[in-house]
Structure formats: C-alpha cells, structure tokens
Amino acid sequence: MKYFHTLLCLFLSLSFVHSQKVFPDKMYALINAQIVDIESETIKTGTVWIKNGIIENIDYQGIKVPDIYEIVDLEHSFLLPGMIDVHTHLNNLKAAKRALMSGVTTVRSASVPAFQDVSISEMVVNGQLEGPDMIPCGVYVTPFLNENILADPRLGVLRGPVDEEGELRHLVKINIDRGAKVIKTRGTERAGLPETDPRKQTYTKEQLGWVVDEANKHNVPVIIHAHGDEGARAAVEAGARSIEHGTFLSDETLMLMKEKDVFLVPTYITLLDLTEPGGDYEHPVLEMRGKYMVPKSERTIKAAIRIGVKIATGADNRYAEKTTSRVSMEVEEFRRLGMEAWHALKTTTSLAAELLDINSSTGQIKVGYEADLIAIPDNPIEDTKALQDVVMVMSNGNMSLLRLPFGIK
Questions:
Q1: In this model, does residue 284 exceed pLDDT 80?
Q2: Which of 79, 136, 297, 327 is spaced 20 to 30 Å from 316 by Cα?
C-alpha cells in the first residue's frame, strides 16, 4: 500500500509539469485601431500585426499589410491589453468562457475545491483551451478544509484544524506539487458567510510565516485573505505578496504595505454584490453587513490611492451563470473613488501583470508580448464604462470574440 501511495504521488506530480505554451499559427493584422499605449499613456491610430500568438509589429505609418495576414478592421475601436482578474474562483470551462468573453485574458486563482485551476492552466498552455491564462492556486490553506480533503489522498490527514507548522507546510507542499503557482491563505475570517466575522484574525504572524517560508522555497508567492487590520498587518509582516480585500485597513498598515511593495486587491464590487439582489450572494445578514462594509472599503481604497499602495483588480467571483460582477466594474469604481483614469486602467493591465510577475509578456501592447488584446467602442480614459462593452477578444493569438463590423460592407 505504501508503494502504491508513492507511485500515485509521483504520477500526480508528473501530471502537472508545465510545458512550453502552444500558440496558434494564425496571422492577423488589426487595422484602424485606436491603440491604447499603457506605458506612454497615449492613444494613436495604427495597425497591430499578430504572428504565432505574439505581437509582431505595431505600425503607425500605414505600411501595406502582406497578403498572408488576415485583416481585421477594428473600425477605430480602442485596442487595449486584455484585462486581468487577480482574484477569481472560476473552476469550470463554462466559467472560463464567461471570463474570456468579458475581456479577461488572464486570471489568478484564489482557490478552488479540487485543482480545477491547475487543469485549466495546463489546457491553455497546451493549446487545448483559448483562455484565459490561469495562474493556479489549488486548495485554500485554511484551518478547515472540509470536503477539499478529497482533492488529493495526501490531504486526508488534514481533517482540521490545520494550524500546526508541519500541517501548514504539508498543505503548501501538496499544492505546489500539484502545480500551484501561487499559494492562498487567510489572515481573517470571511465576509460572505453570515456566521463569520471578517475582522476576526485567523492565523498568527508566526503561522503565516510558516506558509510563506515553505512557499518561498519554491519561489511561489503567497496571497493572504484579510479584511481586518490586525490579520492584514500580520500578513504583511509575514511576507504576503498581496492583501486580498483589506476592508478595514488602517493607514499604518497601508504605509507598511507601500514600504514592503505589497499589493492591495480590494474586490470592492464583491461587497457591492452583498448589498444587492441577485449575483453570487443573497442573504439578509450579508446584505446588512455589506452596507456597513462598503463605506469602510471605500475609505481604505481612497487611503491606498493617497498613500501610493499598488492596487490590482479582482472580481472575487466564480463567473457563474448568475454572477453580475466583472473586473471592468472594479475599474469604474476606482475612478469614482478618485483614481486617475490612466492609473485605473493600469490596475487591470500593467499593474495587475506586475503583481503576477508576468509583466514581461503581457499587460501592455508591445512587440514581443503575447497577443492578449481586447477592443472596445469608446475611449476608456474618457468613459471607463466602455470596458463593459467588449467587441473583440484575442487570447494568446486566438480570435475568441469578434462582433465587428457593425455595418454591412
């Protein structure tokens, strides 16, 4: 039996070794595009050439496009890098499709029940799924795994509470062995359950430090769920890469985050979801809680903008059929709360890519970058709502959505 278990563990480990990403061999020329340059903060009319899933050329001079390229006339729509959702719980193919159709070309998982995010990631890498690119997290490092212990036979010993050093390190190692590229743990309780208090600290600085230390051995970052200030500060001091939610953060904790280059992922639109009918949450206790937490989160976001903490967009949903929130709406809320237009756009493109350490390959429209692109009908600097009306999505060079032309030619 022991020999069988060893073979099983070896098989699981080998099954999730990342390979070189497979790109389509289709070649496109996206003409009459209003190209939104995130780096220079300019918008100019031009053509973007795509070859083998990579941006091959950006032309502002009107060079004739060779016949080998399929021409796509964007009709002066605004061409941007694909949006990035750094906090999602999508765990199935239909959800992945919904995310992609909303203009999200890269996501970072914030935990799923049974390593579905690892499978989605591998399918995209192998060219079996158009996207979005997935940075998988695996199973939540949390005191009680409940049914998630069924995700891997090695988790059976973690019936809970998972709070000792050996247990926490064991769970981190299993996640990484199964293909996780980020680890998620918690500093405080949840907001989305009526019986929990999101301000209550869950793990101590020492416990979070064990998780971070084990992940660091494999060069894997740790993201930490924390609404309350005490739990968030412990997370920052322990070495979190980002604080997820951060509803009740003090200015002192935010200043420490800036000092340590820790990102804030507010997931503000999820709190709005608590207060409104429909969507992913419908419960009278949560509705009341949300109405209390929304202004607290607004204060935190405004303070983070003022202090200069880096912020990235996360929708914190599963992209289910009834889900009503999208990262484009998070950008709109950042603008409403006082963020400059270009800065708000960067939270879902270049800044989000920096958080995920993929800013050398995506998050901007640059030669040599992956062809993760979206087109929208209006200028996003003048009207961020335009991000909610995506008319073209290209993921890794795959033309996943094209609603143009609007008229008969």
A1: no
A2: 79
Task: Output the pLDDT for position 19.
Answer: 58
Structural domain includes residue 35: no
Tally of structural domains, the chain: 1
Q: Is the pLDDT of residue 1 over 70?
A: no
Q: Which amino acid is at 180?
A: A
Query: pLDDT tens digits, residue range 2-33?
Result: 443 443 444 444 444 445 899 988 999 999 99
| List of long-range contacts for 298-303, beta carbons under 8 Å, 24+ apart | 298/268, 298/337, 300/246, 300/247, 300/248, 300/249, 300/254, 300/264, 300/266, 301/264, 301/266, 301/268, 301/334, 301/337, 302/337, 302/338, 303/249, 303/251, 303/254
pLDDT tens for residues 304-321?
A: 999 999 999 999 999 999
* Cα–Cα dist 280/292, whole Å: 18
> Maximum CA pair distance of the chain?
68
| Inter-helix orientation angle 2-15/165-178, to 10° | 50
Which residue shows structure tokens 């389509």? Answer: 24
pLDDT tens digit string along 242-254? Answer: 999 999 999 999 9
pLDDT tens, 134-160?
999 999 999 999 999 999 999 999 988
Q: Please tell me the distance from the alpha carbon of residue 31 to that of residue 54, in angstroms, as a whole number.
A: 16
Give the tokens for residue 80: 């941007």
Residues 6+ apart with CB under 8 A from 265: 86, 87, 223, 242, 243, 244, 245, 246, 311, 312, 313, 314, 355
Q: Which residues, in sequence order, are CB contacts of 134 under 8 Å at separation 6+? A: 96, 106, 107, 108, 109, 117, 120, 121, 124
Is 249 in contact with 224 (CB distance < 8 Å)?
no
Residue 68 lies in a domain: no
Q: Domain containing 116 — which CATH number?
A: 3.20.20.140
- Does residue 165 lie in a domain region? yes
Task: Starting at the earlier edge strand, list the strands of the sheet with 83-88.
Answer: 83-88, 104-109, 133-135
Nearest Cα to Cα of residue 80 among 363, 398, 370, 388 = 363
Q: Where are the alpha helices (DSSP H) in 126-201?
A: 165-178
pTM passes above 0.90: yes
CA-derived radius of gyration, the chain: 21
Range of the structural domain that residue 258 is part of: 83-355
- Is 350 inside a domain boundary? yes
